[in-house]
Amino acid sequence: MCGIIGFTGAANAKNIIINGLHSLEYRGYDSAGVSFMNGNDFITIKCSGKVDVLENKCENLGFDCNCAIGHTRWATHGAPTEKN
């Protein structure tokens, strides 16, 4: 089962999105991703595996943002890879 969470506000979006994705883990998934709004650009980080892997990849972003969207994915179409 897939899950999605989004946030926009005054707080650090990275922490809210990652914590929200951890809350969705019980639903089952095999990969996860997040997109952060950085000015007029989006920074997208994806991984196959657990949200902990995604969290580690997001640790050294080098910027704070207040707008992001994240998801967990159960691969029903295509393999659970970073490309998909």
Walkthrough of the structure:
The chain is α+β, with helices and mostly antiparallel strands. Helix content is 24%, strand content 35%. The protein has two helices and four strands. It has a four-stranded antiparallel beta sheet with strand order 1-4-2-3, with helices on one face. A hairpin with a 2-residue loop joins strand 2 (31-38) and strand 3. Helix 1 (13-24) packs antiparallel against helix 2 (51-58). The two termini are 16 Å apart. The model has no long low-confidence stretch (mean pLDDT 90).
Amino-to-carboxy terminus distance: 16 Å
Task: Evaluate the radius of gyration.
Answer: 12 Å
Count of individual beta strands: 4
The neighbouring-strand order within the major sheet is: 1-4-2-3
Q: What string gives the helices and strands in order?
A: EHEEHE
Mean pLDDT: 90
Helix content: 10-25%
Report the major sheet.
4 strands, antiparallel
Q: What is the global morphology? A: globular
Report the portion of residues in β strands. 25-35%
What structural class results from the helix and strand content? alpha+beta
Oligomer: single chain
Q: In terms of per-residue confidence, which ranges show pLDDT below 50 for 5 or more consecutive residues?
A: none
Summed up, the helix count is 2
